[in-house]
Amino acid sequence: MAKKNTRNTRSRIVSAAWKLFYDQGYDDTTVEEIVEESGTSKGSFYHYFSGKDALLSSLSDLFDDKYQELIPTLEEDMDSFEKLMYLNQELFLMIDNSVSLDLVARMYSSQLVTAGEKHLMDHNRLYYKLLRQIVSEGQKKGELRADATVNEIVKAYALCERALIYDWCISNGDYSLSQYAKTMMPVFLGNFRAERT
To answer: Comparing 152 with 110, which gets the higher pLDDT?
Structure first.
């Protein structure tokens, strides 16, 4: 139970912070406002984060929370490729609608220069676990090619998502990330679908 409470407290802080960052901007958001919005304490905040800048790497937590929310919505009759495209669409819609371009760009740039943990690349994240599960099931059902490993397909998927987000950032968000991905993800990853007979 203690582990669940720990995760809930941290998750509340992260969710509150990103909501405030989106609503009023990163620079104009204070730790005090994050604490108040999350209904936690300053002690709890500093238990999990050394300061506001440390929250930049928590965007991957926000993404994982979105995936957790989406798991029950994955329909049984969807094939694995459709599930992957659905997850991508829903995540990118969330980014389009509730995560500012500036914050995504800051998080990506922080991952480029960090000497420490690269949160986006943490293969123990729910993101990677769920992708591996879907790809593995897809290969067993003959929906995805079996001549590529699960990890190769997952790596290609994650690479495509990061590339699309990166391009969206350097293009200053001049287009809808989710709409562009809806066209491009199937093009980039379509080769992993098994040949239909």
So the answer is: 152
